[in-house]
Design brief:
The structure holds two protein chains of two kinds. By secondary structure, chain A is of the alpha+beta class. In chain A, 41% of the residues lie in helices and 19% in strands. In chain A, a hairpin with a 4-residue loop joins strand 9 and strand 10. The mean pLDDT of chain A is 92. In chain B, helix 2 (25-43) runs antiparallel to helix 3 (51-66). Chain B has an eleven-stranded mixed sheet with strand order 1-3-2-4-6-5-10-11-9-7-8. The chains are: A alpha+beta, B alpha/beta.
Chain lengths: 477, 489
Amino acid sequence: MKEFLTTIGLEVHVQLRTHSKMFCGCGTSFGAPPNTQVCPVCLGYPGSLPVMNREAIRLTVLAGLMLGCRINPFSKFDRKNYFYPDMPKNYQISQYDKPLCLGGAVEMEVAGHCRRIGLTRIHLEEDVAKNLHMETWSGIDFNRAGVPLMEIVSDPELESADEAMAYLQTLRQILVYAGVSECNMEEGNMRCDVNVSLRPAGQAALGTKAEIKNLNTFKGVHAALTFEIARQRDVLAAGGRIIQETRRWDADTGQTYSMRSKEEAHDYRYFPEPDLMPVALPDELLQQWAAGLPELPARRRARFVSEYGIPDYDAGVLSAERAIGDYFESAARGSRFPKAVSNWIMTDVLRTLSERSIPVERFPIPADALAELVELAENRKINSNTARTVFAIMLAEGGRAGDIVRDRGLAQVSDSGAMDAMVRKTVEENPKSAQDYRGGKDAALKFLVGQVMRASKGKADPQMAADMLVKLLGRPD
Amino acid sequence: MAKSGWNTLAAHELRDCLDRGECSSEEAVRSVVDAISATDPVLHGYVSVDVDGALAQAREADAARRRGERGRLLGVPVAVKDVLNVRGQSCTCASRILKGYVSPYDATAIARLRAEGAVFLGRTNMDEFAMGSTTENSAFGVTRNPWATDRVPGGSSGGSAAVVAADEAIVALGTDTGGSIRQPASFCGCVGFKPSYGRISRYGLTAYASSLDQIGPISKDVEDAALLFEIMGGHDPMDSSSLEVPMPAVSWRNGQGLAGMKLGLPREYFVGGMHGDVDRCVRAAVEECRALGAEIVDVTLPHTRAAIAAYYIIATAEASANLARFDGVRYGHRAAGVSDPIDLYRQTRAQGFGAEVKRRIILGTYVLSSGYHDAYYVTAQKVRSLIRRDFEMAFTHCDAILAPVAPTAAYRIGENRDDPLQMYLGDIYTVPVNLAGICGLSVPCGFTGDGLPVGLQVIGPALGEACVLRVGYAYESVSKVRGRRPGAG
């Protein structure tokens, strides 16, 4: 059977995290009752005019800087003309030939390989309203109309559904990191159009593409691509031709369907938006904005490995979310035990966050307090069980580990005199176990250590107890 | 003064009378309403008059004045072209498609007049969506010229010019995209002023051609034009194209004459095509200006002949997008019995728009279409730059330009109905000013042999309003036709 190569390009629409809409002062919060966040401007009333939201420009530029784009020093807005009931003005204010950002790339890892997917451009536009279809009538909710929407267009360089998925996940992580968008899929913050084509292996020119519009979950993108790639392969393998068209993904049937008909010959008749002035972005402003940029998550992950000596997997977990990474860094920086700090966060901290469904910003133990606890445990001032107890107390009541250990007499007992007495007493009280150990049963030693711990009310250094027991019991060889 | 004569006053005159306690705003509004009742059934300058609302606003203004409050237009009624949004009033743009639409907000220009105490009494007729130069394109019937009722008042702000000329208003607002203030002012013997693009906020002005539209006054004298310009002008954060520059200090009130000023006569404007009477009136006005001390110089505007074509490409391109919002979905007329959204658009727009609006939407859609975009739209933008440069060059040789407003006096009703191209050519002296974004003033300067008014156009550079108003004021103060009213002989 003939082999085919797949080429995919993505257009990702991302709602920006601004308080107000792109061209008016209306709010952008999700879930408000229909048509409560509207005004003459975003409803397209006669005589109303758009006024640029400068924060939307800044966020788009931040996204561009994070993705290594060239920022256009002179950018402008254009009218994209088409009629649709979700369009208040029946033209969308968008950017045609002078977008805010050009070039750039998303660097990602797929199945252990590094891939660099080039970007064509990032431009800014206004979101449209939402059509709601009831049984016998339709309504339009204009709350979404005019929300700032950034469109990120990739080069056609993705080669599989998995790569498309990885691209989206990496992109999402970067945008959330930069604070550009919440990228909340349920709220429609991120939506995607995919272009996909196949060509026989060995052929240089790309095949005819199909576009699948308005996919709003990553899973949907993956499933739609998987179906569409198989469909095109079947058509081509049977000697058929792919028609350039727009297709619709139906999540219920798991298939794409042709939407040709009226969609075909769109002429958007772009022309410069006369109601808005061009955007000039002088170097000094860009430098000022760039100064506040966070590190890329992938770069941070690598740095965590080299700087703190933690495993790559851990670094990946800790850098996945910007705030978790920040928490780790403020605990690990200055600590002599960054690996232990990492372990504590990977286990106890993350578990607590997920149990309580809270973001790390609301985690009760400050990073420096966690670092102090780790310090005590690693210096064997307290044993690991005590450390967990102290952690629980800090979680419930707050306070510093050192104070808690002192006030509650939780310091590890490692005084050899006291330990010696406890070990001897334990052996005397458990002759059977002592016998068993001498007879070769390792489990018996564990039991005896447990008894020492019990006698010490958990404060004994378990390693020290075991060492002393082994010495005292003197197993015959 | 006779109690019935308040309606004949200019705004600044009425305001002074009100301040001196010679009359109340209520009396003034009543005298205007009486005039409307007497002559508007014939002229049809208004599409709607809110008598009760205006009287209520007038009484409020009287009460405010009694409390010692003052305002530059406190209690003065202002007529508003039906294209500007006034909160709570209809705003049909003389189109069936906006029937039933009530403005939820005040245009910035309206809000600024309101803050000075203006009373909003009625809405004036116009060509539908400001597309036309006769008001014949109104969906609600033509307005007649008070000087000759078988003639048009000009347009598109024909209603505003007619009601000011007929003393059915104290002062009125118009909008000027290609001459729509200056030409009807000229046809009706009023003063009409189009400030530079960006001087007066367009927020609340229903857009025809966004890069050309500008609000301005139509008034009985130049002083009123300056007064309304000063009130409405200045930066508005709601309009990104409004300029962030200080308003000029209008200094003509102190100075007399035009000594030391250079006024240019564009060579290309005074050749062929102009009606003999218009030519005679304008040349006589030029001589008056020379007598006032101005030096008259020859200037050239070589790209004038391309202006009409460029204008009708740019204006219609922008209009095709601006008028797309009238679709029956959110407000205004909605066609009944439609099958789907596309059908809704088709039927609503087919029923709602008049012939000239449809013509311009189709033209604008065509010039932006792929394959034609560069040949038409891009070329027109280049021509626009050349015209702007023409004026910049000309203004290195003179302070202001004197010109006719239109090649003829008012047309007969129906005269050009079947020949839009001929009609478009009548805009030749006004559209270049809009394309260049500069300012122009129309001042009455004479009459044709048939007794029809003729206007003199004073054109100034961008932000040159103070200079233009000074020239207009100086000329007006010596003009023999100053204050002439229809019917007064």
